[in-house]
Structure formats: C-alpha cells, structure tokens
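in:
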C-alpha cells in the first residue's frame, strides 16, 4: 500500500520543512509523519459501516466503536461486504509499512486504513481525533471528518510515561485510565514505579509482609518539605497495593492498548518500605518504618546474601507477571553512610578489590543485572547505575540532565532520555500565584515541546542507542487523581509529539492550536487539565521616576484580556488596551476571555509599591549568570520573589560575590524609615541568609554615610529566622527592633546596599564547607 505514497513524502521534503495545514481542521496529536489535506468531508453517522478483512483486529475496533459511541454518540456497525460508500475499510497490510506505522485515507465516500496490528490501532486513534474538528459537529445527525491522506510512523520505539504509585497510591481502575490516556496519544511504554520509601505496592507471594507491612504508612507529611519546623504529619493510615490478579488484569489491558509495562523495583536506595517489612535486608538490622515524609534516606539495602536472595525471588515473580523485556531496577540516590560504617560492606570492597562504596554499588548492580538475565529480562536503571561501569545489555534512563544518557550511548548502552528540565511533570507548569502546591521547578508546555531526545553531541552510530523519551510523574505532592490529571494534561500531548513526530514536522504554535481543540475532548472525558496555555504574558517596565507599568499580552486569536483590582469583583472588569500604571501598592487580577467566557485561570500580580519601585538601579557586579534571568530591574519591579511556584525571573543569585547596588530615588526624600531586601533561605538547595550587609545613603551621589535604620528581614547569623532553615518562604518580616520607640528618619536620594553571602556553608547543612548561595528578590525603601 505504502508504495503509492512516497510521492507525497517527496513533495513535502522538497518544498518545505513544515507542511502547512489547518490545525483546527486536522487536530491530530501527535502530528503525523505526513498529512496531506484535501477538500471535502466524510460524513460519519449511524449508517456508517466498518468493513474488515481480519478478525484479529476486533478488539481494537470494538474499543474504537465504544469510544465513538460514548464520546460522539455515533453507533458504528460492522458489515461483511463493502458497500459503495459510507464505510470505513480496515485491512492488514504491513508490506512497506514500518512497525507501528499506518496509512489512513479519507475522502467524501470512504475511509481506508492499512497497517500492522499496532498501526491499525494508531490509525483509529488518529481517526478518533479527526472527529474533533470544530466545524462539523452536526449533533445527532453525525460528524464530518475532513478528507486527507495520512502516512504515519513513530520517530522512537520507546514513548514512555511513568507514574509513581508509592508516594501516593492509585488503584487499578485509575491505572487503566492512565493507560487509556497514553494510548490515545500513541505512547507505548508505561513505567510503573511500584516501590519506594513510602510504600511497596506489588504483592510478592514469597514475601507477604512487603504488602501487609510495607504497603502502609502511619501518616503523611503536611505541606512542603521544610515548610514547617518541626515537620507536621497527618495521622491517617495510608496505603494500598496491587494483588497479582490486579497486575495480570492491568497487563492484559495494557496489551490491548499496545502498551508495554516496565515495572520498577527500586534498589538499593529508596527501599525503606521493604526494609520496614524485612529489616534483615539492611546493614543495621533496623527497626524501620515506612516513611511518612519525602526525600532521600540513609537506610538502604545492604549488599548481603539475604538481599540477593530476596531480589532473586522478587524478580522471579515480577518476571512472570510482566511479559515485557525490561525490568527497571532503580539505582538512583543511594547514600553510602550505612555501607561505610558496615564491616561486611567494607570486607566486600576489600575482597573484590573495589575502590570505594560507589564501586560497591556498581558491583551490586552487576549482580542484579545477572539475576534479571537468569529470568530472561533486561535491566534498565536510573543514570547512577552507569557510575563505576555497567554490565552489558543494561539500559540507562537519563534523569539528571542528559549527560548520563550521552555517556551511556557512547558506551553502547541503550538509553531512554528523561531529563528533569524537560520531562518532570511533577514540576510547576505555570508561574501563576494560584497554582496548587508542587515539588518545585518550572516546566511549561512549550519547554516540554521543545525537547529533542537525541543530543547533537552524539555521532550517527551513537544516536542509534537513544530508544526514546519518557516523562515522569512523581507523586510526593500529587495526592489526588484530579491533580494527577492536571499535572499530566496537556503536557502529555507535548511529550507525545516529542516522541512520535520528526523534528521537521514540529511547530509549537500549530501544536498549541491543536491542543486547544483537544480541550473539547478532555472536557467530554471529564479530565481536569491545566489551562496555563491561556496564561497572560506580563512585562513590567519602569516609568523611570514615576512608577512602573504592567503590560499584558496574549497570542490567542479573538481573545480579550480583562483586568480588575478587587478579587471576585466581576462588575469592575476593564478591557485591557494599554499598559496599566502602578504608582501605589496594588493587586492586579487579569484573565483571558472569549465571548464573555473566561478561558484560563485568573493571573494575579501583587505590587508591593514603595520608594524604590521602578527607580534607576545599577548593579556594580553582575549576579551569577545561572540566576540572572530578570536582571537588576527584578530587584525593583515591585514583585516579591516566591518559591511556590518558583518564579526564577524574580530572584538574582550570587555565589562568593557580593550584591552591590545603588538606587537613585530621583529626588531627596526626607522621611525614609525603612530599607529592606528580601532574601531566600533554603538550606537543602545550599541557599543561605547573607553573612552581613551594609547600607549607605547620600543626597548628592558622592558623599555617603551609614544608614542607621531598621532592616527588613533578620539575618540567620544574628539569631534570626531559624524557622526557615530549609524553608521555602522568603524571609521577610517588618522589624522595628525597639518596637515602641520613635522612628529614626533618614534623608536620602541615593542608596547604596552591599550584601555579603556566606563563603562557607556551616557544619551540619547540606553542602557543608562549600560557598553558599545568596538569593535576593526585592529591595524596598519606605
Ligand atoms: C528524584 S528522579 C527522584 C525521585 C523523586 C523526584 C522528585 C529519580 C530517579 N529520583 O525519587 O520523586 O526526584 O522530582
């Protein structure tokens, strides 16, 4: 069949890199290899029949019929013989069609589909999405499917989504839903993160306590890690697990959707739940409890005989349950404290002539890989497993950036790219104030979309080792199913296009239009998707000596921006036409509207307007280039930095260097009462309070004298805000040290501030002895 169509491919490649067609009319995600648009439409209705030459595809076709019935209300029937028009003909023809590829031809009279088993399944997904085109909703009469010719095939064989069910547990039905979403977008590998410190979720007959003990915890952290000191927990008995019958049912369902499941059994780190059930797998003997909080823990599996026997038995049962080629063996974030202190581990290191505990982990991994081979499985692990050499045949999942993946490909190991900066769907997708709590980070839709899993630094031969790409959904802060949906949609659409579509056919604005069409489908499926695509772009600019302006922008066609000042005050909405002047403390709310209907979330800006806001500022030394997105202006734009969601452009970072700046207030102010700066304390990220500061003032810009004024924000070194030792809050409190005393007013036009970072992180903190970061977001003068 495909023989007829190389011509189209030739035409596309020779005329333009990106083939043009109307995104609304052909809202297929991921975008096909080639799609040639035609005029005219096929009418889909209850009298359309499906004709097929092969019973083999009945399951796929039945699933398609069910969806069309449920979502579009059209009842398609089978027919044994071809009628003259109004049919969908489905035929196995894999000659010249690559694995998972398909041909789909639509004209006014008929629809024809050709492909192999998976290809036909994917053709039906595309057809299902084409029913979405907006002009053709004829209600009970039927739908119009736009004519076209699609010749399609995937870029990568590994198109993965991961779900962490340890931190939060989602039952069998939810997992099936997740698989259905994946299939709809032609994703084909489900990485099921089944075990971690906070819960063991898979029944293992030989070790019943893994689930009777290891699947349950006695409480869960409240709020963000570090937000409360001491940490607060709820007291709910939390947990759950999948029986082996559940697993078989899910595996079967996944097969019907052409999805392979890769189960992950974490080792040797992230294994507290297993240790709680079987403390003899540890170096110290315990006792342990299933963790109620997140993070990385020192208690890990000990590489002793008991542990290898355990792994052998677990792998044996897991291999029988999952027919796929790979088992994921974790391997990430394994602290070495226990191995260092353990005589048995030290003897292993000596006996096997290993250099240190890191090589011991590599030795451990090789033994695990051999166990898997015994059960005819290949190992895949997080990129740490590469350190110290990796056994042949094992594959690497690159999560700490791309370096691990690049090194693995060069060493001829298969690789799945899943770097945190592009593939972590637990990160925020919007910088809007109103986002629900997430772990941190910022991964908007366009950034996911921009990812190319094949690093340019690899040569042609090495590139062949990149099997594909995967997004990870870690659930520490994702405790409800609607929130899972929110974090997954629509980023899963972008991932699908990264995994399936050749780079020449990718185009973000075309994609965005198709995503907006898909929102109608997601509405019908009751999926709670994020609407950050409708966030407004804001630009704050200085009006020199008279405040600042908030400029708002959108790229959405036919949409209006409305803004208002009082929350919920819908009567006082203004149509945005030019930048809003800010010359007093003010909160601005704005959103996008079409025909009076709000599209996205409300966006909010809280302007902490003060004498410094918008005034000329000069930095005598630039910030560290990794943390300088907003430049000096971000210090006086009226917006305080925040961490949840992280607004990277509001913080300037300094390492070893001082923050040294001068602000010109424009005229001499004679009753300045407070000068402040707003800094971040997050010890886990090596961000500390400054060690000291110096403030000088001047009326002429030449002669400066020390300003003897209260400062906003305590310094830790002055015994200040210990509560936020690894807090996520910006430490700012108004302080008049002598509370009732008379204020001390100063007279100044020029203000010179120097803030000194700590050069050594104090003992007992992460990164001890290294230089600390200083993060400052805002200067205030009152
Ligand atoms: C790091 S990614 C982890 C996970 C956390 C995740 C949170 C990886 C291999 N390890 O244990 O859940 O960060 O983003």
């Amino acid at each position: 069949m495909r023989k007829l169509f190389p011509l189209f491919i030739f035409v596309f490649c020779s005329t333009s890199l990106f083939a043009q067609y109307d995104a609304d009319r052909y809202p297929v995600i991921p975008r096909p290899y080639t799609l040639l648009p035609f005029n005219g439409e096929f009418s889909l209705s209850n009298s359309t029949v499906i004709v097929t030459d092969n019973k083999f595809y009945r399951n796929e076709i039945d699933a398609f019929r069910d969806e069309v019935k449920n979502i579009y209300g059209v009842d398609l029937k089978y027919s044994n013989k071809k009628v003259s028009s109004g049919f969908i003909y489905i035929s196995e023809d894999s000659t010249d069609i690559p694995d998972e590829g398909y041909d789909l031809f639509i004209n006014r009279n008929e629809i024809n589909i050709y492909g192999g088993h998976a290809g036909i399944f994917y053709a039906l997904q595309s057809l299902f999405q084409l029913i979405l085109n907006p002009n053709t909703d004829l209600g009970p009469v039927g739908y119009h499917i736009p004519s076209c010719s699609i010749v399609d095939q995937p870029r990568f064989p590994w198109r993965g989504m991961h779900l962490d069910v340890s931190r939060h547990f989602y039952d069998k039905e939810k997992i099936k839903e997740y698989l259905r979403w994946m299939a709809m977008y032609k994703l084909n590998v489900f990485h099921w993160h089944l075990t971690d410190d906070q819960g063991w979720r898979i029944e293992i007959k030989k070790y019943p306590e893994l689930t009777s003990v290891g699947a349950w915890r006695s409480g869960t952290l409240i709020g963000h890690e570090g937000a409360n000191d001491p940490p607060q927990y709820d007291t709910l008995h939390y947990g759950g697990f999948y029986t082996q019958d559940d697993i078989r049912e899910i595996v079967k369902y996944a097969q019907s959707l052409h999805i392979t499941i890769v189960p992950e059994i974490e080792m040797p780190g992230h294994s507290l739940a297993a240790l709680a059930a079987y403390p003899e797998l540890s170096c110290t003997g315990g006792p342990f409890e299933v963790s109620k909080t997140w993070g990385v823990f020192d208690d890990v599996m000990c590489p002793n005989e008991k542990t290898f026997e355990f792994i052998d038995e677990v792998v044996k049962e897991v291999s029988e349950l999952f027919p796929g080629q790979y088992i994921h063996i974790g391997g990430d974030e394994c602290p070495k404290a226990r191995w260092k202190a353990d005589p048995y581990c030290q003897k292993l290191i000596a006996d096997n002539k290993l250099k240190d505990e890191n090589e011991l982990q590599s030795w451990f991994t090789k033994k695990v890989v051999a166990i898997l081979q015994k059960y005819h499985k290949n190992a895949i692990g997080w990129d740490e497993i590469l350190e110290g050499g990796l056994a042949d045949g094992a594959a690497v999942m690159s999560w700490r950036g791309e370096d691990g993946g690049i090194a693995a490909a060069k060493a001829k190991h298969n690789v799945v790219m899943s770097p945190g900066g592009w593939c972590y769907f637990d990160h925020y997708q919007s910088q809007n104030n109103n986002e629900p709590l997430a772990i941190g980070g910022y991964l908007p839709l366009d950034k996911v979309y921009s990812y190319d899993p094949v690093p340019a630094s690899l040569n042609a031969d090495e590139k062949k080792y990149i099997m594909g790409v995967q997004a990870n959904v870690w659930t520490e802060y994702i405790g409800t199913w609607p929130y899972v949906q929110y974090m997954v949609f629509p980023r899963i659409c972008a991932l699908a296009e990264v995994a399936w579509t050749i780079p020449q056919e990718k185009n973000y604005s075309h994609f965005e239009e198709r995503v907006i069409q898909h929102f109608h489908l997601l509405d019908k499926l009751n999926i709670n998707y994020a609407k950050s695509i409708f966030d407004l772009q804001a630009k704050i600019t200085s009006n020199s000596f008279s405040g600042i302006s908030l400029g708002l922008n959108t790229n959405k066609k036919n949409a209006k921006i409305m803004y208002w000042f009082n929350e919920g005050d819908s009567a006082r909405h203004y149509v945005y036409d030019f930048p809003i002047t800010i010359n007093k403390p003010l909160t601005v709310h704005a959103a996008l509207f079409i025909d009076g209907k709000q599209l996205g979330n409300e966006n909010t800006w809280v302007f902490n307007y003060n004498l410094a806001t918008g005034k000329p500022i000069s930095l005598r030394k630039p910030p560290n280039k990794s943390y300088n997105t907003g430049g000096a202006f971000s210090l006086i734009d009226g917006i305080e930095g925040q961490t949840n969601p992280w607004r990277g452009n509001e913080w300037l970072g300094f390492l070893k260097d001082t923050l040294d700046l001068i602000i010109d207030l424009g005229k001499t102010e004679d009753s300045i009462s407070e000068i402040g700066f707003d800094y971040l304390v997050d010890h886990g990220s090596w961000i500390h309070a400054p060690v000291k500061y110096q403030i000088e003032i001047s009326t002429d810009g030449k002669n400066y004298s020390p300003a003897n004024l209260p400062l906003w924000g305590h310094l830790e070194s002055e015994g200040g805000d210990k509560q936020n030792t690894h807090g996520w809050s910006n430490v700012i409190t108004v302080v008049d040290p002598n509370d009732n005393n008379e204020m001390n007013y100063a007279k100044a036009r020029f203000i010179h501030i120097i803030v000194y970072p700590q050069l050594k992180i104090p003992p007992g903190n992460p990164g001890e002895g290294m230089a600390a970061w200083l993060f400052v977001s805002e200067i205030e003068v009152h």
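note: DSSP finds 18 helices and 37 strands in the chain.
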